[in-house]
Design brief:
The complex is a heterodimer of chains A (162) and B (823).
Chain A (H helix, E strand, L loop, with lengths): L1 H4 L2 E3 L13 E9 L4 E9 H10 L11 H13 L1 E5 L2 E2 L3 E8 L2 E9 L6 E6 L10 E6 L6 E5 L6 E4 L2
Parallel strand pairs in A: 2-9
Antiparallel strand pairs in A: 2-3, 3-7, 4-5, 4-8, 6-7, 8-11, 9-10
Chain B lengths: L1 H17 L41 E11 L4 E11 L6 E7 L10 H4 L13 E2 L8 E3 H12 L5 E7 L7 E4 L2 E10 L4 E11 L3 H4 L4 E5 L8 E6 L5 E2 L2 E2 L3 E2 L15 E10 L3 E4 L2 E2 L2 H4 L2 H11 L5 E4 L1 H7 L7 E11 L4 E4 L3 E8 L7 E8 L4 H22 L7 E6 L4 E4 L2 E4 L4 E2 L5 E2 L2 H16 L15 H19 L14 H5 L16 H20 L2 H15 L6 H12 L4 H9 L6 E9 L6 H14 L4 H9 L4 H4 L6 H4 L7 H13 L2 H13 L2 E9 L7 E7 L4 E6 L10 E8 L5 E6 L14 E2 L7 H6 L7 E5 L8 H17 L1
Classes of the chains: A alpha+beta (162), B alpha+beta (823).
Amino acid sequence: MIRALALMLALLLAVPAAAHEQKVTITTVAHNPRTGLVEVVHRIPLHDAEHALKTQGDTSPDIVNDIASRRAFARYVAERFAIVRDGKPIALTLLGTEIESGRLLVLQEGPSPGRGAEISVLSKVLTDVWARQENRVNLGTGTSVDTLIFVAGDRAKTAVLP
Amino acid sequence: MRLIAILLAFFVALPAHAQGIQQTKGDYEDKFRQLDEVLPDPNVYRNASGAPGFRYWQQQADYRITADLDENNRRLTAKATITYKNNSPDTLPWIWMQLDQNIFKKDSMAELTNTFGGPGRRGPAVSAGGGGAPARLSMEELRRQQAMEDNSYGYDITRVSLTNGRELSHTIVGTLMRIDLATPLRPGQSVSFNIDWAFNIVEENVIVARSGYEHFPDDPREGGNDIFLFAQWFPRLVAYSDYEGWHNKEFLGRGEFTLEFGDYDVTMRVPNDHIVSSTGVLTNPSAVLTPTQRQRLAQARNADAPVFIVTPEEAEANESSNPTGVKTWRYTAKNVRDFAWATSRKFAWDAQGHKQPGAANETVMAMSFYPKEGGELWQKYSTAAVVHTMKVYSRFSFDYPYPTAQSVNGPVGGMEYPMITFNGPRTNLNEDGSRTYSESEKVFLVGVVIHEIGHIYFPMTVNSDERQWTWMDEGINSFLDSVAGYEWDPDMPWTRSLPRDLIPYMTSTNQVPIMTHSDSVLNLGPNAYGKPSAAYHMLRDTIIGRERFDFALREYARRWKFKRPTPADFFRTIEEASGTDLDWFWRGWFYTTDHVDISLDTIHRLRLDTENPDIDLTRRRDELAGEPEKVGVRLNREQGLPIWVLENPGVTDFYDENDQFTVTPRDVKSYESFLEGLEDWERKVFDRAIDEDKNYYVLNFSNKGGLVMPIILGLTFADGTSERMMIPAEIWRRNSRNVSKLLVFPKDKELASVEVDPDWETADADISNNHYPRKIIDSRVEAFKRPAPTSRTGRDLMAEVLVPDLEDAEADTDDEAATEGSE
C-alpha cells in the first residue's frame, strides 16, 4: 500500500500536438539454426519513430532521409529491448535499419541460447512516450509463434525460445 | 451436493446448445459452412441479397442551431430546434439523445473505467508498476488530472422543451439523455423541440479528445491564439434502427458514432477576425468575407490549382489581430449525418473547384485551412490530396455527394465529418526560423488527408455503425486509401495494409476476430484497419478479380448510399454482386483469428503403365537399376569378400540368364487379353494416353495456418518456361487440413520446381514450406546482411561486424540515403 503512494514522475517532454500515432510495434525474436544466433527484428511505424524523437529533443527528425535521426532512434530501440538468459542479458549487436512499407525495421542479433531455452524478454520501446503503446513480441517465426505483449510499466516476461 | 451436481450438469450442457450445429465425432471442421446460422435473418427491411428491403426505413433529424463562441473563456453556448421524423413502423414514447461532451465529466463511464496503465487507454502515459517497480505518472497525466479538477466539462443542458415552450421531462444517463415526449410519436409523425446547452471546451492536447482547442502561446498576439475544432458539440439524436431499436451504447471514446441523416442550418457567432470552416455551404459570404475573398473564391471554382482565399501572409498578420466584435457565419447542409466546424484567426485558406460533370454537385470546392505551422507542407499537398481522393474514390463508389470537401489543420491527428476533416501533420520550426518537414511527415499528410476525406464516402454517406463495427468503414477506407496512395506515388513509403504487411499480426496470439465490438477490440489498427483492408486487396486482386470486385463494391456503395448497412448487408452484397460464394472467406477472415500458411509438402511424379510387358518391364528394370546399391553389398565389395556365384561361374541355370523383368509368354498373353477386354471407347482412350505419354504429378498440400485460401502455384519446367495456376479455395471443402492435386503436362513439359504464392498475395506466414524442391529461405536478418540485398530500401548498416570501416560506411550510407530521398 505504501508503494502505491510512492508515485514517481516520468520525466517526459510534452508530446507533439500532431498525434495520430499507431502506437503498436511488432518484434520478432527467433533462433536461426543455420547461424546459431538469435535474431531480433523490430517493426516500428516511421511516423511514430519521428514523433518519439521529438520527445527526445530532436526538433526536426527525419527517419527516412536523415541517417543521424534514424540511428538515434535505432539506438533508442536497442536500449529499451532486452533478452535475458540465466540472469544475464544476451549481448545483442545492433545491425542496422531498413525501411519497409512505412515501417522502420531495426535489426539485432546475438548469441542464441538455443531452441527450448527459457528466456526473459522486456520491450519498453515507446512505452515511455505513449500510454497506449503496445509492443508485441513474437517468439519464433513462421506459423507457430508465441506472443508476449508489453505495455507501460510491464516487467520482463519469461518464455521458451521456440 | 445434489444442487451442485445439477448446476454443474446444467452449465456443462449449456455451450452445446449455444453453439448450434456441431461435429460431435472426429475432428472434421467445415470451413465452408454457410453463414446463414450466424447472420441475422433477412426481412422486409434488409433482404437476403444484402440490399435495403422493400420496407427499408430510417429516421430523419433536422437541426437549426445557433452557437456563440466565448473565445476568452473557451466556452460554447448554443440552442437548437430539432425536428425528428419517425419513419419507423413503431410508436416512440421517448427520444434518446447523445451527449458526447459528457465523456469529459469526472464521473463519466469512460473516466471511471479507464484502467491504470492498461491497454487501449486514450490519454497520457502512466504505468502501473508492480513487482517492486513504482507506479509512474507522466507530466501529461498530471496536467490532465489538474485540468479535469480545475474545469467543469460536459454539457450544461439548460432547457428541453417543445417549440411551444412546454418543458419536456428528460433524464441524463452518462453520455445519453432520454426525452419523454408529451404524446407518443406515431409512425410518420414529426416532433420539434428545443434544447439549450453550453459547455467548456476541452484543450485537446491536454484532455485527449476528438475535438477541442489548441493554444499557441508564442503567437504575437497578447495571450496567444487558439484553433477551435468543434465536433460532438451538440446533442445528437441516438440512432433508432430496424435491427437494434435505440442504439443506447455509452460513448467510451474509441467506438465512434452511430448517427441519423438530416438537414442542418447552423449559425456561428465568433470573433470577427476569425475564419470559419464548416460542414455545409456558407450562405452569407457577403456578410463575413471581404470582396477580395469572395472574388478569390469565385476564381478558385474554376482553377486548376489551389487559389488562396486567405493567403499565408494575411493569416500570419491576423495572428496579432484583436477582434472588434462578432461575426455571424451561417452554414447549411443537406442530408448529412453529422456537423462539425473549426474557427481561428490563424487560418490561411485555399480552394480549388473539383469538376464532376453530370453529378448532383458538378463543382465541389476542395479547400484547406491551416496555420503557419502547416506551412508549405499544407500549401503543396492538402487540397491536392483532397482532389485526388475524390477522383479515385468516386470510381469505386459514386460521385462525391456534397458541395464541399475540406481539410483543416488543428490538434486532432485525423478525424472525419461530413464535408470537413481534421488533420494533424505539420512542419517543424528550425532554429533559424525556417520551417521544414520530413518525408514521412509528408507521406503522413497526404495519407491522412486521403484517408479522412475518404471517410466522407464511408461512413459519412454509406452510413455504417461505427460504435459497433469500426472495421466496416475503416476497412474499406484503408483499402481504398492504399489504392489512392499507389495512384499518387507507388514509391512512397506508405504504411499500407497489404496482405504481406499483416503476417506478424495475424500469426501473433492474443488477438480478436475482426467481428468484435469497437470498444472491445485489442489492437484496433491492425484489427479494424489493416486486416480487413488486406482481405479486400485479396478479394480484388486474387480471389474475385478486379472487374467483378469493383462492380460489387460499387454496388454496395450504391445500395447503401445515405442508408445504414450492417455487416450482413456488406457480406451478402459482395457475394451476390460478384457472383462468388464467399461464406468461407468471411467466416475465416472476419469470424476467426486463424492465419494463412499453406505448405507444399511433397510432389509425386506418376507415369501411365502401357500394360505392354516389353515396355513396362523394361521400365521397371531401369527403375531398379537406378536405385542406389545396397550399402552392405558395397561394403562387402570394398572389403574384398568373395561372392559365391562369381567364384562358381560354371554353375548356372535359367534364372541366371533371365531376371525378374524378362517378358514371359504368360505376360504377353495377359497383355493381349487386356487389350481384347477393352471396349472400343476404352481402347481409344488408352491408345491415345499411351501415345501422348504425359507427365503426371500429384502435389500434396497441408494447411498449417487454419485459413482456407486459394492455392496459387508458380510452376517452372525443365525447358525453362513457367506457368501460373490458381486453384480456388474450394479445394479445401471436404478436408481443410490436407489436400492433393493432380497436375498433368505434355510429355515435353517436365516440372522442375513449384512455388506456392510466388507473389506473396495471400499473407502466407511461412514461405519456407512454399517451395518444392525445398529452398533455404533467408531469415529477415540474413537478407539484411546480404551484400547486395534485393528490393530493400533505405538500408543502413550500423554494426561494426558488417561495416569494417565505420567512418567510410557512414559516408556511404549518407550518400545512399540522400539519393533515395531525391528519387
